[in-house]
Specification:
Radius of gyration: 15 Å
Strand content: 25-35%
Largest sheet: 7 strands, mixed
Order of helices and strands: HEHHHEEEHEHEE
Structural class: alpha+beta
Number of helices: 6
Amino acid sequence: MAREAGITPQLRFGRLTEVAPQEIARHMSDPRMAEHMPLLTGAWDEAAARDFVDAKEGCWQRDGLGHWAFLRGEDYLGWGGFQKEGAEWDFGLVLRPDCFGLGPAIARKALEFARQDPRIPYVTFLLPPTRRHLRPLMRLGAVQTGEVQYEGQRFLRFRLETG
């Protein structure tokens, strides 16, 4: 695994269309992903990955912003970014298990983008209660604002001012 300080200059955000569907399917099929993703159900194959990418590209078309592929050079690290949920911009980060330690560097880079974008006065984060390590989120300045139900699952809701 790369050290956080060493990846930042090479880290780039691309479109999910740059990543082979098999690679996304392999990532999302890893059983470790479901541990903290209660909405992740069913098998992921290439067709499911293509449908996922199409849906995320639809967000780009509708809102002018959406989820990225996180890349180091050409290596796929995971996906995430901003998705409009009603009037709010929710931030998600889903990394390959061997890249979990890169989350803070990726989040900082994405949040710097949000701070420069006038459409995003604040960001929300929805985390399942299984997530016990919340200190990195708090260090970013996020504040827990309560809990929400989303598709029948309970999530902890956090908010981070970007302005």
